[in-house]
């Protein structure tokens, strides 16, 4: 009987554990009374509360423009561009000019403050009847800027932690290992700072490339092309002659040996003659 009693008790316990019972009101009240800690998000290496206001970052835009047009007076157009550069507080980054078989041209690359970009383009466009090329682009790099700023902030905080650990380190091996890690982090910080400065410079100043040209009359173009060909031929001949003399100078020991051998051979031949 005792054996049957124990078996029935065990069967009841097992059947009770296998059932999924819903919690009663007291259990529900006890669960709802527990207050979970507020959820936190990591941004820039620091924990921020969900209710904390996120900092607003100004939109970062890189503006660029490429212009190409024809003009009747290269010098006058260049003066107008110089005046527009001064008014927009810009600066000339590069300036080159040249000639093809039928055109005279000039290429100028200008850096203009981004806030004056639109006014500068409008000033340059005045008086131009037709653009062979007019390309204006605006690239949004706000996300890239935020990413670099966040990574840089995290690296600086990591460096501070390593410096704190370094002050408490006592073993030489630990000190050397921590200093090695600090050196690596410092290189990464400098790299991120360089990228951020480059990005900020491109955002603060826009790049404008201007190419303007003048078509030459057919006869004038032929004269210019013929004269350039003659001058090129003269320079080529001079360089060839210089290369020839330099090559002779470089083999002077062999020339001396050949001259000496020729002298003795000739002298020996004369002796053999009756």
Radius of gyration: 41 Å
Strand content: 15-25%
| Residue-averaged pLDDT | 77
The total of beta strands comes to 7
What strand order characterises the main sheet? Answer: 4-5-7-3-6
Unreliable parts: 1-7, 9-54, 219-224
Order of helices and strands: HHEEEHEEHEHHEHH
The end-to-end span amounts to: 155 Å
Largest beta-sheet characterization:
5 strands, mixed
Helix content: 55-70%
The number of helical segments is: 8
> Which shape, going by the Cα principal axes?
flat
> Helices and strands: which structural class?
alpha+beta
Describe this structure in words.
Helices cover 59% and strands 22% of the residues. The strands form 2 sheets. A 5-stranded mixed beta sheet has the order 4-5-7-3-6. A two-stranded antiparallel ribbon has the order 1-2. Helix 5 packs antiparallel against helix 6. The relative contact order is 0.12. A hairpin with a 3-residue loop joins strand 4 and strand 5. The chain contains 8 helices and 7 strands, in the order H-H-E-E-E-H-E-E-H-E-H-H-E-H-H. The protein has 274 residues and is of the alpha+beta class.
Describe the secondary structure blueprint for this structure.
Elements: H1 2-18, H2 25-32, E1 40-43, E2 46-49, E3 61-70, H3 74-87, E4 91-99, E5 103-113, H4 117-125, E6 131-140, H5 142-168, H6 172-204, E7 205-215, H7 218-250, H8 252-272
Parallel strand pairs: 3-7
Antiparallel strand pairs: 1-2, 3-6, 4-5, 5-7
Name the descriptors.
274 residues, alpha+beta, five-stranded mixed sheet, two-stranded antiparallel sheet, 7 strands, disordered N terminus
